Structure formats: C-alpha cells, structure tokens
Automatic annotation (TrEMBL), chain A:
<dbReference type="InterPro" id="IPR003439">
    <property type="entry name" value="ABC_transporter-like_ATP-bd"/>
</dbReference>
<keyword id="KW-0547">Nucleotide-binding</keyword>
<dbReference type="GO" id="GO:0005886">
    <property type="term" value="C:plasma membrane"/>
</dbReference>
<dbReference type="InterPro" id="IPR003593">
    <property type="entry name" value="AAA+_ATPase"/>
</dbReference>
<dbReference type="InterPro" id="IPR017911">
    <property type="entry name" value="MacB-like_ATP-bd"/>
</dbReference>
<dbReference type="GO" id="GO:0005524">
    <property type="term" value="F:ATP binding"/>
</dbReference>
<dbReference type="InterPro" id="IPR027417">
    <property type="entry name" value="P-loop_NTPase"/>
</dbReference>
<keyword id="KW-0067">ATP-binding</keyword>
<dbReference type="InterPro" id="IPR015854">
    <property type="entry name" value="ABC_transpr_LolD-like"/>
</dbReference>
TrEMBL record, chain B:
<keyword id="KW-0812">Transmembrane</keyword>
<keyword id="KW-0472">Membrane</keyword>
<feature type="transmembrane region" description="Helical">
    <location>
        <begin position="315"/>
        <end position="348"/>
    </location>
</feature>
<dbReference type="InterPro" id="IPR050250">
    <property type="entry name" value="Macrolide_Exporter_MacB"/>
</dbReference>
<feature type="transmembrane region" description="Helical">
    <location>
        <begin position="360"/>
        <end position="384"/>
    </location>
</feature>
<dbReference type="InterPro" id="IPR025857">
    <property type="entry name" value="MacB_PCD"/>
</dbReference>
<feature type="transmembrane region" description="Helical">
    <location>
        <begin position="413"/>
        <end position="433"/>
    </location>
</feature>
<feature type="transmembrane region" description="Helical">
    <location>
        <begin position="492"/>
        <end position="515"/>
    </location>
</feature>
<dbReference type="InterPro" id="IPR003838">
    <property type="entry name" value="ABC3_permease_C"/>
</dbReference>
C-alpha cells in the first residue's frame, strides 16, 4: 500500500522507494524496505507503528541526518540524498525544523535566545510580527528570559517548538515530542503544533506511540516492519487504536 | 575494584595520557638533572683521581675572606719558610716542601687576547720539577726568569710550541715569557678538569702569584715511612692551629672535582627549575582532568554508591587510577630523562678540555626521585577530586548528570588565607636580607599562586564574560563566550595552568625591565664619562688594567679626567660583600654624579669608608659608625663610615681608600676605568688613543656609553631568553590542559553540539565556536598571569634597590606578546577538539541518551 498523491508543488517532503539497511553480513538490519510517503504542505502528519518498525529511521532520512541505502528523499523539490555536508547544513538551517524528544535546548541560552538561535545561525533577523505570533502561539511571553533549567518539561518543549517554527521551515520533524511529558503538558504541545499548522500553515511530521496524540494530526501513516501498511485521514483516537490492533494481529499472523 | 579501575584508566587513555604528559615532562627534567649530575660528576672524579697522588698531605692557610665568593675568589694567604720548618718538625712528616700554585695566571694567545677557557681554572705555579703526576713532554723546565712551562691543554688551545713567546697576565701587568717546555699529566692527560697552568720559576711565581706576600701558597707533606696519614694530619692540625687547613691528597682531589661540579649546579638548577614549573602546572592539569572525569562519571559513581560502595572504596579507586598514571608517567619520564641527561652531559663535557664522559648510568636517586615526584605529585593532585568523588550522593543517580556549579565558600576561604600568607611571606622575604629572607620568597610565590588559583573561579565568570566580549560580534563567538563562562571552576583551573607560566615569565621580565631601565637611566643621565674600559664578562673583578698604561691613557689628547676602579669581595662586619676602590675618588664622584645622602662624600680620608644608601641600610650603619673590614690580604681594619651616597648601580658597594686597596685587594690593578673627555674632544678622535695605550690590557675593551648600556641590556636579554624557554615548557603543558578541557567539554556537550548542527550550525561555525572558548580561556589565564606577574615583578624589583634597581618599569611590549602568544596558543589548542566537534555524527549525537 502506498500513500502517494497529487502534484509535486503541494509536497513539502517525499520519500520514494526508500530502503535503509544498517550493518553488514549477519548483523544486517533492514530498517526500511521500500517506503513511499508524500507529505503535503500545511498538513499535520502523524507516523505510528510498533517499536523498531523504522519510524525514526524514516524521519532521519527525510531530514538528511542519515543516508538512504536505496531510493530518493526530497524536501520541497530538492533531492536530499547525495547532498554534501555543506548543503545538508544549509538545508537543515533554512528548510527543516526539528523537535526532539529530549528538547535539546542549549542550557546557556535563555528561552528567547534558544528560539532565535536558528535565525542567528543563518544570520537572519526575525520579522517582529512573525516572532510575536510564534511566541504568542507558544504562550511563553512571560518566560522568555528564563534558562531551560528554570522551565518545566512542557515549557521547554514548547520553546523547542517555537525554535523549530521561527525560521518558517518547509517541514518540521518531531520524533515523539510528547514522549517525555505527562498527558497535560503533552496536550499543550500538541495543541500548539496543530494550531501552528492551522493558523500558520506549517507542515509537521510527528512520530508518536500515543493514539491520543495521533488524533491531533490530519493524517496518520502506519508503519510495520519497514513498510507503510496503512493510513487514516481525519483520525480519532478510537480509529487509530483500532487500526493499531489490526496491524498487531496482522503481524502476529505473519 | 582494581580491575574496574584499570579498565576505566584504559578507556580514557587519551585524556589521561595528556595529563600524564605534564608529569612525564616534570620527571624528565628531574631525572635528567640527576643523570647529568651523576655522569659528569663521575667524569670529574675520574679526571681528578690521582691529581694529587704525589701528595700525602697538604697544608694551606685558611683564606681571610670566604663565603659566597668561594675558594676561587679568595686570595691565597702566603706561608713563610718558618711555617715550612714547623711542618717539617712535626713527628711523622718525612719531607715538607713549599709550593706555589695560585689561580689567576691568564695566558695571552697570539692574537693578544686571553686564551679562551678550556673549562677549568687558570693556575700560575712555581716549577718544582717533574713528579709522578706531571712530566714534561717537550722542551725543558723553566730555568730563567723569562721562561715558563705550560700544560699541553693550554698549548693546544693557544697554539703554542716550545720556543714561542707567551704573554701572561697575573696580579701584575702583562709580562712576556718564552715557552721552555710543555708538560702533561699521568694517564696521558693534557689537562686536569680543563685547567690551564703556567709554571714559572719559583721566584717569578712568588712575585707574580703571591705578590711577595709570603713564600708559598701551600706545603706538600710526604709522610715518613710507617707514619699514618690520619695521625700526622691530626698532629699537624694541633701544631698549626685553626688558621690552617690540612688535607689529604684524596680530599684535595675531591675538592677540585667539587669545584668543577659547581658549573654543573647551574645547569642542574635550571633543569630543576623547569621541572618545578612542569610539575606545578602539571598538578593543575591533573586536578582538572580528574575533576572533569568525576563530574562526567557522577551518575556512575552515584550508582556505585547506591549499590553499596563505601567512600573509602571510591577514594581508593580514584587514587589507584592516579597511581597507575603516575607510575607510567614516572617510568616514561625517567627514560626520557636519562636521554636528556646523557645529551646534556656530552654537550657540557665538550666545553671542558680533555674531559672524558663517564659511562652513562642511572643513579639510584634519580629513580627514587622520579618515582616519588611522578607518583607523589599525581596522587596528591588526584586526592582533591577523589575526596569530591566520595561526596557524590547516591541520589545523584536520578538527578541530572552534570551537577550545577555550587559556590565553594570553603575554597574561597582557603584561597584568601593562602594568598594573604603568600603575600606576607613575600613581603618578609623581599624586605629582609640574607638567605633566610630569600628562602621565604619561594614558598611565598608558591602560596600566592595557589591562593590566586583558588580564588580564580570567583572572578572567572565575569572576567571570561568581559574577555569574550572581544568575540561577541558573530554567533559562534557569542556561543563560545557563553560556553567558556559555563563552568567557572573548570575554566579557572585550566586558565590557572597557563597563568603560572605567564606569571613567572612576567615576573622576571618585569624585574629585568626595571633593572635594565635603572642601568640605562643611570648611564644616560648620570654617567659623565663618554668612554669606559671594562671587561667583557659582566664580572667586575675578572679584568685588569695595567696602571702604567692607564697613566699613559690619561695623557691622550682630549682626555679630561680618568677614574679607575678596582673591585673585590671582603668581609664587612660579619657579611661578605662587594667592595670597591677608586684611584681618584674626586674624579669618580664627579663622573658618576654621586650625591651625598648623609655625611660627606667629598673626600675619602684614610681610615674612613663610604657606601651607598641601600648598603648602609642593609648593614644597619649610620654615618660616624665604626665598621670592621677584612680584605683579602692583611689584617682586619676598623673604619669610620664618613658618608653615604644615593644609590647608583655602577658605584653601589663599600668604597675603601685606594691605598688600602692596593695592599688588601686580591688584584691591585684597576679593573674598570672611566674617561671624561674635554668639551671639544669627540669620542671618535679620542677612543683610538686610549685603545692604543691599553693594548697590553686585553681583558678590557674601550667602549662608548651606549655600548656599555647595550652590554648590560644584552646580559638581561640573555637571562630573559632562558626564562622564555621556561615559559615554553609551561605553555606546552598549559596547552595540554586546554586541549584536555576542551576535548572533555566537547564530549560532554555532544548532544548540544548535535542539536546545534541539526538546526543548521555549519562546520566552520562549530570550529569557530570551540576556538573562541579556547582563546577566551587562554586569554583569561594570560591576563591573570600578566597581572600577577607584574605585581610580583614590581615587588621583587622594589626589593632590589640595594642592588641598584631604582626604576620600576613594566615590560609592556613583552606583556603584549605574552597575551597574543596565549591567544595563539589557545587557538592552536582548540584545533583538535574543534575538529572533533565539527566532524560529529549529528544523528548519533542527537539521539544519544
Ligand atoms: N544505527 C543503527 N544501527 C543498526 N541498527 C539500527 C540503527 N538505528 C536503528 N536500527 C534498527 O533499525 C530498526 C528501526 O529503528 P527505528 O529507530 O527507526 O525504529 P522506531 O520505529 O523509531 O522504533 P521506536 O518506536 O522504538 O522508536 C530497528 O530494528 C533498529 O534496531
Ligand atoms: Mg524511534
């Protein structure tokens, strides 16, 4: 089963028949075995699947953090595989945003400085309106001067989200962004992500294990054993849960 | 536990290797010094073995002035024939012969200059025939007053053969002789310990070497058959009393060897100085390494504690680790040190005529000291981090791995106390005089350093912040600046390692700059003589000018006045110190622009002395006081202090009336002469005339004022060069420290770096960020060092007023060079870690747990 769709200009990122093999010989692991995914602009996509099914690997390949063994990866209309380190750096700086499970904020910088870091690295000035909008959406206006250690996990993750948003990247990759948060803080972050898609037109791809989290997305892509096995649009938590069970039984049968 | 420790050592090879390197360097210098001393020491022993075989016992009168000047500088006290008879009458003495052998006969080569040293003393002796030790190789014994025999070493160095004419300088002006014979020593030696000997006929030797003060310089005793050396020695001592020394041939050999070893002491001291710096800086490096390792392993350690490991076990494990490193470093250092010692020994031996380098051996003390220094220092330095490791609470397993930097109130206290103590010792040492005071300076400096280091974390955050401002224009610079301010303690210790080296050099540079400026100011402002004749070596006592030639120079057209001076050491009160005398005090006073400070210095009447202000203060003397002066020859005399003058480097000392000096100084001839020219005479027109007059006094050269100033400057510059080599050693180690710290920081921040790279920080930017951190830390250390060093240097320079340092100057340009050098060093040190940071696998870095 594949998840292809209409014209290229609407696509923020795309994976075409991507294979990824780790290791050699006996220790060989095929993490991705021919994955085709299209990620449309302005869409909030969730990726789900059992542990070890290759979700993170796909994200890493899409973001140019890891190389593919076979197939092609595109961000906007640029082919990511085959780029030099310099090009990859520029790609990450200008076109891609990251949200990590561990927040990965810089401890010596304040929240605001962390948010502005991608722009500072690129040597760009933030447009004041955009910045105000982002900060308002994250809801951290009174916490901007604080250091990461002085913020709660949820707040830190929202700073990380703002950091990913501020440079208006083509696509934001979030690998289990709520994995380290309790349900309330997680809900705040997810709401924020959904809002940024709805109101700011951002494209976001999120890996999650939580059907509830997935229900915030516009579309859920299901992974198993290095393949895309199914997808749901306009998901509800129940629909996601059902699908997960189905995949589980399928796997057991297989 | 042992196995776990060993594993942990091996897993952090590189880092430990870096910190171990400092210890290796320290041990290398220490063991190198010992090996050098041992090897050359044995070479000298072998060289002098048998040098006095022909003598059973030797009797000599004790020198009148001894002490700091040592044997070489003291004039021999002559013995008369009556003493020889007294010695001969002592039971057990078979034969007693008077000998003349005194240091100070300088042979002139064919170019008219003194034959260069062959590494040993220059003796003048009275020929007493061949012995079992000494035999003629060519020609015959000196028989006429104008004949001499010389040793083969001197003949070779000066290219003399039998029949040549040879000029010799002694206590009297140049005399010419004919080389009648050339002699060598048993064992086919050309020279013993690089000595040069001119053997005159006895009456000539008596005149030239003893100046008719007695008949002999020593008495050689042959024992009667069956007499025991020790018994006769005791009997001689009893007969002659305390004014005499009685030594066996063996003791004499040993004394000669010991004297030759003195040049070794200097080399040894330099090496030990290097070792001290290496070790001192190394201590900081080791403390830092272990602190960081422990900070990194906080979780692991806490887990161990949670699993029930006791504090003792934790300390033991860290100490065991340091023991292993110390041991390995000591062994490597010892190996390198043996090489260094061997190299040094062969280089040094090359400068000494006829010295055969003894077989290389590793003396036991080198091994012991290497191990003690290597292991001791490493373990001591690891102790503090170990104690801290033991304090890790089991709860830290759950808490964040990197503990926040707490305020260390205890450390601040200790630092303050040590700093105050160090400063007090310094003040005490610098204000006082004598050896006791000087020995307070070293611990004072050490305590000051440690104190400053302990206090450094307090200022490191703001200081680094300020310095980092230099780089805050670009983003990598900003990030680097912040990173360097993140861990003030670590930054402080790393910077301290650099601080010590820079501080030491700045201290000495400041002292040198002050001394240089003092001399230069005096020469340009006060010295009225446009031409000066003085020896080439800085030693004011090592040259002599023929008084007759000087009279001739006074008659040269355009010479207005001449002030000639002679210098010596004497016992003034209880202390040995430099004394001077001027042939024409009035002229000297004018030419040196001396101004009275108390009493009158217009005249130097018989029975009175003058001195500079600082010397009077040191000796606690006031105008009108009596002071006893024992010159090299004659009986002690009591003088009245008639006046004191303002300090002036060229004149600072106790000034004795000329008449007394000609009798009492070792060398009655002047060693320096100052020429004042007539108003209408030019230096260029007068200089050749004076040079011509002084052509038979080749030990001095006639120089302009500027050349003299330049010569002083060159002397200081040479010292500075040596000091800068010291800095290089300290820098190398400090660089290791910076590399170490940075490498660890990069490792610690892998995740952060990964995140930065993931959001688009380029490789170049990453490198610049890490480089900035490094440069900021090094600059911090250098600034600290320059400030501390300048302070110390000014204090030391201030304390040297009595030595004529009356201008305090800071070596601005050198200080700037040290700062720039530190910045460069910092940049270089960051290359490795920065490369690693830039090459980081981004994916692995961000996904790491
Ligand atoms: N660096 C690597 N070297 C070898 N194998 C790897 C590596 N990274 C991932 N794998 C393997 O690839 C497969 C997919 O891993 P991936 O991390 O993409 O799974 P995931 O779907 O993200 O799982 P989870 O939900 O647990 O995060 C797994 O079998 C994993 O063991
Ligand atoms: Mg994953």
């Amino acid at each position: 089963m594949s998840a292809t769709s209409s014209t290229d200009t609407e696509l923020a990122a795309r994976a075409v028949n991507v294979h990824k093999v780790y290791g050699t010989g006996d220790a060989q692991v095929a993490a991705l075995r021919g994955v085709d995914v299209d990620l449309r602009r302005g869409q909030f996509t969730a990726i789900m699947g059992p542990s070890g099914s290759g979700k993170s690997t796909l994200m890493h390949c899409l973001a140019g953090l890891d190389t593919v063994s076979e197939g092609d990866v595109y961000v906007a209309d640029m082919k990511v595989n085959g780029m030099s380190d310099k090009e990859l750096t520029a790609l990450r700086r200008d076109r891609i945003g990251f949200i990590f499970q561990q927040f990965n904020l810089l401890p010596m910088l304040t929240a605001e400085e962390n948010i502005l870091l991608p722009l500072a690295i690129a040597g760009r000035k933030p447009s004041p309106e955009w910045l105000a909008k982002v900060i308002e959406t994250v809801g951290l206006s009174d916490r901007l001067g604080h250091r990461p250690t002085e913020l709660s996990g949820g707040q830190q993750q929202r700073v990380a989200c703002a950091r990913a948003l501020v440079s208006q990247p083509e696509v934001i990759f979030a690998d289990e962004p709520t994995g380290n948060l309790d349900s309330r803080a997680g809900a705040e972050v997810l709401k924020f992500l959904r809002d940024s898609v709805r109101t700011l037109g951002q494209t976001i791809v999120m890996v999650t294990h939580d059907p509830n989290a997935a229900s915030y997305a516009d579309r859920v892509v299901f992974f198993a054993d290095g393949h895309v096995v199914s997808e749901i649009t306009e998901p509800t938590a129940d629909a996601v849960l059902d699908m997960m069970k189905k995949i589980d039984t399928l796997e057991k049968v297989a | 536990m042992f196995k776990a420790t060993l594993k942990s050592v091996l897993s952090r090879k590189l880092r430990l290797l870096l910190s171990g390197l400092a210890v290796v360097l320290g041990v290398t210098f220490v063991s190198g010094a010992f090996v050098l001393q041992d090897t050359l020491g044995r070479s000298f022993d072998a060289q002098f073995a048998g040098a006095y075989d022909d003598i059973d016992l030797q009797v000599a009168a004790k020198a009148r002035v001894s002490g700091s000047a040592g044997d070489a500088a003291s004039a021999p006290v002559g013995l008369d024939a009556a003493t020889v008879r007294r010695v001969a009458d002592v039971p057990g003495v078979g034969k007693a012969d008077g000998d003349i052998r005194v240091e100070g006969a300088r042979a002139l080569g064919k170019d008219g200059k003194v034959v260069p040293s062959t590494g040993g003393p220059r003796y003048g002796k009275g020929w007493t025939g061949e012995t079992s030790l000494l035999a003629l190789r060519k020609g015959h014994a000196p028989a006429k007053p104008d004949e001499v025999a010389i040793n083969a070493g001197l003949a070779e160095k000066g290219h003399f053969s039998v029949g040549d004419s040879i000029g010799v300088l002694t206590g009297q002006p140049k005399r010419s002789f004919t080389v009648a014979g050339i002699f060598g020593y048993s064992g086919d030696r050309d020279s013993i310990g690089g000595e040069q000997t001119v053997a005159f006929t006895e009456p000539v030797a008596r005149e030239l070497m003893l100046g008719h003060n007695g008949q002999y310089s020593a008495i050689s005793v042959d024992l009667a058959s069956g007499a025991k050396s020790a018994t006769v020695k005791a009997a001689l001592k009893k007969e002659l009393g305390s004014g005499f020394e009685v030594r066996t041939g063996e003791e004499l050999s040993k004394a000669s060897a010991d004297r030759s070893r003195e040049i070794l002491d200097l080399v040894t001291q330099v090496l030990l100085g290097f070792a001290a710096v290496a070790v001192l800086v190394g201590v900081f490096l080791i403390i830092n390494t272990f602190s960081i390792i422990i900070a990194q392993r906080m979780r692991e350690l806490a887990l161990l504690r949670a699993l029930g490991a006791s504090r003792r076990q934790m300390i033991g494990s860290v100490l065991l680790e340091s023991l292993v490193i110390g041991l390995v470093a000591a062994v490597i250092g010892l190996g390198l040190g043996v090489g260094l010692g061997a190299l040094g020994a062969s280089l040094l031996a090359g400068t000494i005529k006829g010295l055969e380098v003894a077989d290389l051996a590793v003396p036991a003390n080198a091994v012991v000291v290497s191990l003690v220094v290597g292991v001791g220092v490493t373990m001591l330095a690891a102790l503090f981090p170990a104690l801290r490791a033991a304090k890790v609470a089991p709860i830290a397993v759950i808490r964040s791995a990197v503990a926040p930097d707490r305020k260390h109130r205890k450390q601040t206290w200790t630092g303050s106390v040590l700093l105050v103590l160090g400063a007090a010792l310094l003040v005490m040492g610098l204000a006082g005089s004598g050896d006791a005071a000087m020995s307070a300076v070293l611990p004072g400096v050490l305590l000051t350093f440690i104190g400053v280091t302990l206090l450094t974390p307090l200022i490191s955050r703001p200081a680094v912040w300020l310095l980092g401002g230099l780089f805050s224009r670009s983003l990598p610079g900003q990030l680097g600046r912040r990173n360097s301010a993140r861990n003030p303690r670590r930054t402080a210790i790393t910077a301290s390692a650099l601080m010590i080296g820079v501080a030491l050099v700045t201290t000495l540079s400041t002292v040198a700059a002050s001394a240089k400026d003092s001399v230069n100011n005096e020469i340009s402002d006060k010295l009225k003589s446009q031409l000066v004749a003085m020896g080439d070596s800085g030693d004011s006592m090592s040259a002599s000018i023929d008084p007759a030639a000087l009279r001739q120079a006074r008659g040269v057209d355009g010479v207005e006045a001449v002030a000639a001076a002679s210098f010596d050491t004497a016992k003034v009160g209880k202390d040995t110190q430099s004394v001077s005398s001027w042939e024409d005090w009035g002229a000297a006073r004018g030419m040196l622009s001396l101004r009275a400070e108390a009493g009158s210095i217009d005249e130097l009447a018989p029975g009175s002395v003058l001195m500079n202000k600082a010397t009077a203060k040191d000796r606690d003397l006031k105008v009108g006081d009596k002071v006893t002066v024992q010159l090299q020859r004659g009986e002690p005399r009591s003088y009245r202090l008639a006046g004191t003058f303002e300090d002036m480097a060229l004149a600072n000392s106790v000034v004795i009336p000329w008449a007394d000096a000609t009798e009492g100084f070792r060398n009655a001839q002047p060693s320096q002469a100052f020429f004042e020219l007539a108003a209408d005479a030019s230096v260029a027109s007068v200089q050749p005339g004076i040079e011509k007059a002084l052509r038979d006094s080749p030990e001095v050269t006639v120089q302009s004022k500027d050349a003299i100033a330049q010569k002083f400057n060159d002397g200081f510059d040479m010292m500075l060069n040596l000091v800068q080599a010291l800095l290089a050693v300290a820098m190398i180690i400090a660089v290791l420290g910076i590399v170490n710290t940075l490498a660890l920081s990069v490792m610690e921040r892998t995740k952060e770096l990964g995140a930065l790279r993931a959001i688009g920080l380029g490789r170049g930017q990453t490198i610049r960020m890490i480089m900035t951190e490094s440069v900021v830390i090094s600059l911090f250390g250098a600034v600290l060092g320059v400030v501390v060093g300048a302070g110390l240097g000014l204090a030391v320079a201030h304390s040297m007023r009595s030595q004529g340092v009356n201008t305090l100057s800071l070596p601005w340009s050198l200080m700037a060079v040290y700062l720039v050098g530190a910045a460069i060093v910092g940049a270089l040190a960051s290359l490795g870690p920065a490369r690693r940071g830039a090459r980081l696998n981004v994916l692995r870095a961000v996904t790491q747990e």
